[in-house]
Specification:
- There is one protein chain.
- This protein is mainly α.
- The radius of gyration is 18 Å and the shape is globular.
- The protein starts with a helix and ends with a helix.
């Protein structure tokens, strides 16, 4: 019985890992579409493509936390600071998570 359990658990864990990876890819693709739709590349450069008016976002997820990035996107926490970036507070939580997935991809 132990052998049978091991034979079933390992493939199931591998399958779930692949499923999570595919889900992340789908989320990153959604984020890429949002990045284009919201015209983020007009100001920000990402992977060598885009504008130079705002910071390069290529490795932003290595320098900043998810919460910090979310606050920058929505405009929260920028009160009193001068920023040319508009608040994208119309984006849903799932859209912001997709943008994060894209920036991490």
């Amino acid at each position: 019985m132990r052998f049978l359990t091991r034979r079933l658990v390992l493939p199931a864990a591998a399958f779930l890992g692949c499923l999570a990876l595919l889900s992340g890819c789908a989320s990153a693709r959604k984020g890429e579409k949002i990045f284009a739709r919201e015209k983020c590349g007009n100001c920000h450069r990402f992977r060598g493509v885009g504008g130079n008016l705002a910071p390069d976002l290529t490795a932003v997820t290595e320098r900043r936390s998810d919460d910090w990035i979310k606050m920058q996107i929505t405009g929260a926490g920028r009160e009193g600071r001068r920023s040319r970036m508009p608040a994208f507070d119309h984006l849903s939580g799932s859209e912001i998570r997709a943008l994060l997935a894209y920036l991490k991809s």
